TrEMBL record:
A Pfam match: PEP-utilizers
The entry's keywords: Cytoplasm, Kinase, Magnesium, Metal-binding, Phosphotransferase system, Pyruvate, Sugar transport, Transferase, Transport
Cofactor(s) of this protein: Mg(2+)
InterPro entries in the cross-refs: GAF, GAF-like_dom_sf, PEP-util_enz_mobile_dom, PEP-utilizing_PTS_enzyme, PEP_util_C, PEP_util_CS, Phosphohistidine_dom_sf, PTS_EI-like
Reaction equations catalysed: L-histidyl-[protein] + phosphoenolpyruvate = N(pros)-phospho-L-histidyl-[protein] + pyruvate
The protein's name: phosphoenolpyruvate--protein phosphotransferase
Domain annotation GAF: ranges: 26-172
An example molecular function term from Gene Ontology annotations: phosphoenolpyruvate-protein phosphotransferase activity
Amino acid sequence: MLTSGTTSVSRRLLGRLRDVMAGAGTAQERLDKVVTLIAADMVAEVCSCYVMRAGEVLELFSTEGLKSESVHQTRLRVAEGLVGDIAAHARPLALADAQAHPRFAYRPETGEEIFHSLMGVPIIRGSRVLGVLVVQNRTMRHYTEEEVETLETVAMVLAELVASGDLVNRSELVPVDGNAVLPLRLEGVRLNAGVGLGVAVLHRPRITVRRLVAEDPDIEIDRLNRALAAIKTELEELFSRPEMRDGEHRDVLETYRMFTEDKGWLNRISEAVRTGLTAEAAVQKVHDDTRARMALITDNYLRERLHDFEDLANRLLQHLSGDDEDGPRGELPEVAILVARNIGPMELFDYDPKRLRGLVLEEGSTTSHVAIVARALDIPVVGRVKDVLDMIEPLDPVICDGDNGQVFIRPPEDIRETFIEAMSERQQRRAIYAKLRDLPAETRDGISIGILMNAGLLLDLQHLHESGADGIGLYRTELPFMARSALPNVDAQTMLYRKILDQAEGKPVVFRTLDVGGDKVLPYWNPSDEDNPALGWRSIRITLDRPAVMRQQLRALLRAAAGRELSVMFPMIAEVAELVHAREILDIEIAREKQLGGVPPTRIRVGTMLEVPALAFQLDALLPLVDFVSIGSNDLTQFLFAVDRGNPRIAERYDPLSPSMICFMRHVADKCREYGVHLSVCGEMAGRPLDAMTLIAIGIRSLSVAAPAIGPVKTMVRSLDVGVLVPYLHSLLDARDHSLRPKLRSFAIDHGVRL
Ligand code: PEP
Ligand code: MG
């Protein structure tokens, strides 16, 4: 529950600002009055307002205290000087001795050399910095945190004046190529393949907070409490829906509910109300602070958490401004492309998947939940499309080209037609894949290939039977853990794993034990502060160090598989000793369950992922201990080439179809054959037909791929003559090429292999 406190000094200032802003005069005149007012109220000799102009230049627009001839003359680039630094990092600065700061840039025309202290805050609206507001004093004044807060609140009010388009032309407030009427092609990253055409629906359209200054904080606190209560009721209503009875979406919702109770966050909002803001302005302020902080945070765990608060702030704003009809639950157009900065997997379920033709995100990564859920729903996704929300208007026509990681906004007719043709071809291909469902995955020269599916959500199970996959070659058990607000207990896990096995209807399922850390974050575990999380405390390293978690998971798996076969796979094993240790834990659990009189699985198969190159040099010691090995090509590529898989600048720099990677995997395949150990590949590479063709040529006979890749991979398999490819591939392995992809593609084309 929020409570209102005492009246603060800034309320008086805000009240005056409101009168000036609503009063007579041009925007410039009003701004001049505003800076005078702030200087007086904050007992500063200088108050200046810099406004961002086209080309990322900050222009001095108004000042009280600096030389008047510098107005509209003094300009600083973003990141230049202290003002530029505030804009670049979207964060406040308060310096008693500003001139001693290494970033201080002296501008003689301003006459500012006599002012020693400086406090500045960014003027932010949405996620964009529109300018900088600065106060300066002659003495070495130590500005307090409260004074910084006050200036931030004032900057927020000023943001409305800057964004109004009366000070600078509104066209300068959007990026240079963001002209709303021109067609645009924007580059992003493929998060899910496929192409969709539709009209833009902006996820949580930006709500413009119109009423900023409040009369009575008690009324505002009351409004906030009512909005919070409404969200909680909404959550209860969602919980009661039949489709929410179980599954990962329920877990996500539980986590969400936890955030509505977060005291720190609620306190920050009520503090902001106490400074004189309306409830919505207070939420907006905390929300803007969060966003500005998010831009600076590289820690995945913190980013995820801040993102959840951001979602909540948006819902609150919708309630407070009374236009929740435009919100997530609003009616979608017939064909919609959803555009968002980021979106949680739960929120995606707010939209009718039948009408959703694509998803475009400013953020996101292939392993983010939403990408995984979108994959399960077969919705094309393009992520990391910079500033797309600033360049698009609701109902703009959009093409979401997940295949090539690009987005067309307001595309010209010829581009639209090309895509429509490509889509109809894709439809035809799908119909062909559907016919393939019950045909064997056998090459032209009679080699049988196992094609299995990767899964991580109960939702994925429906594709198992539709696609004709032979089973689930990789079940990523971490997703249900990531969706919850607390570690699921043994019973909850048992129920989930039992459901998965039930729904698999006897097809094999390989359960991979918890593989968190790196880019997969559990909301309830404190992150470790690591410089290289991908090389850090993650996956099996965590579960071996926290054996209780591993034991509980194994116990749940044993119970769920009572009377049927169980396959358990350990991730990120780097040395045989780790596998031995993990097996010991499993053996203890098997013995314990036996003692308790539980029905054991009919058979237990134990396997390891091969993702860390070191393990490949211990295969003689490893292979006698396991029933199967699965190569995780995503992490293997990352570790073999020392290339961060999550960094778009270099993620694609090395090709898995390089001589080194192929030779490496061939060595593993040869050894597994020698020891009679089943080998599969379950990374993304296995789902790309050309890559899969190469894997088959080095002796791999089992591939586990995302559901939409099953048809294309099977088509390739059925058109391939392995006997012809093998000698050709061998002839290439000593090549000096960066990638063998072009040559292998030519081979496929020449030999009628269907890619
Ligand atoms: C891999 O690394 O290839 C893999 C399948 O595991 P994940 O993508 O879940 O890390
Ligand atoms: Mg991996």
